[in-house]
Amino acid sequence: MRRALGPARLDRWIERELISGLPPRKRARLHEQLRRDPQARARYDRAVSALRVLEGDGDLAPSELDLVGRWLADELDPEGAEPRAEGARRWWPAMMTVLAAALVLLWAGPLQQASAPWWEGRDDGWQARGAASTGRLALEALCVAEGVDAPSRRARARECTRRDLMGFAYRVETGIDGQLTLFGVDADGDPMFYLPTPVDPSTPAVVAGRWRALKIAVRLSVNHATGPLRVYALVSPTAATADEVRGWAEQLAGQPAAGSGDAPWIERVSTESLARACPTLARCQAAELAFTIDD
Amino acid sequence: MPASSSPATEELAPNGWSWGLLRDFREGRTTALHEVYQRHAKEVTATLRYGFSFQASGRHHRFVGYRSAFELHDALHETFRRAFEPGSRERYDGLRPYGPYLRAIARNVVLRGFRSREVQFPEVREDGEARGSEIEVVDEVGETPEQEVGRAQVRAVVKRFLDTLGPDDRQLLELRFVEGKSQRDAADLLGLGRQQVRGREAKLRQQMLRFLRKQGEEGLVAAGLVLPLLGVSLAELLGEVLR
Known about the structure:
The structure holds two protein chains of two kinds.
Chain A: H1 7-19, H2 24-36, H3 38-54, H4 62-76, H5 84-108, E1 126-127, E2 137-145, E3 156-157, E4 160-161, E5 164-172, E6 179-185, E7 191-195, E8 212-219, E9 227-236, H6 242-253, H7 271-274, E10 285-294
Parallel strand pairs in A: 4-10
Antiparallel strand pairs in A: 1-10, 2-3, 2-5, 5-8, 6-7, 6-9, 9-10
Chain B: H1 7-10, H2 19-27, H3 30-50, E1 52-56, E2 59-63, H4 69-83, H5 86-91, H6 98-120, H7 145-163, H8 167-178, H9 183-190, H10 194-215, H11 223-226, H12 234-242
Antiparallel strand pairs in B: 1-2
Helix pairs in contact in B: 2-3, 3-4, 3-6, 4-6, 7-10, 7-12, 9-10
């Protein structure tokens, strides 16, 4: 039996399920808890009660029928609910085409200096910090609408919706080497595995000198919650495992997003959890960024 | 494949559906299944919400309907999931009306739960032996006091949420959920696009659930203060807010 969701996360999942729908795996987990836990069920029922009052019908809100309709639709059309790893692998060649065009801008434009990105000052934050020296690893998330075969499709830096595919680009300074780990923490506080994933432990070795696209594309409709997404990158001598990523994500989910002047994320997680992948902080580079996934 | 418009197919099947819908349904086409769900979800919900009588082991019972929204949703989903299984679709000939067929499935979903309770709580004879499966379901009439208070508390929170809304949002709620206008009609009246109305509705629901969450247990006022709100409709709540 899976671990029960805590009250705060339970409420967030219920809210998301009732408003826009959870991805199938999360939904199954929520339902499992609702079936066995009367208190969890009471929280769900209370939220539905409020919707019923808001929607003017004391017995049944129209959105309740839509909700069950979504459950059925997801079962009838499981294509849209495939696990992320498979989706990511299938889409990356198309994503690379779009990223390549975007990287020309990253290379030729003011982004050549990772420490002075063009979006500085925006609300959605960019933080690229290494333990030993600031700004030696930089990371960018780029989103495009699904169906990226159109050559004119524009990649948007950290302007993403749940209908988009998300790709990543990174840059490390000359002299830096190691394996790249990439993961996220979504609005529900859940870990998002990019590199490695629980089904694919491989991570790429970084290539220094210029912006480079990663060969992954993530369908944001799968597993990602609407709301803030934090993405964390690590270059380390040894590749991280999915379990290590899960542990870091859990620790970081309980902390506020980093602000200017905060320590890099590898200094905000326990040294024990880093010890294997990153025996000394000086040998690792870390970066993080935060932006919002819109509906 | 969409329904053909040839004269032969314009006639309705015996169950009242178009022949095209019946064919697409039996083939399991998503659009047809969606349409069938839209047509019949409310009546199945009514069966599950308000209950029905039945006999078991020679005794009369009454299922009083699901009080829990989640249990209701779960059973509604299970009913349609079973009805949409390939074997069930293929067996449906279109001669009988589909509503009673679905309600029979819904009853079976409920009775499955009843039977599992019978197994868990068999009646025991004086000699200590179990007496088959004769278990009587306790018939709860109306809501329990706790449920009544809970509903009243939720209404009080919704009223406080409505207090926080601007006139545009209140007008949207009034049009959609008090006057019962469609999203398209509400959009026309508000000078908005349908997608905008849809988006604003979703946002309002989300804001309200967050408000509810923020209020938490501490936000729930004493039952005595809110009981007069029982039975108050959205129209009345909006009226109070606007006064």
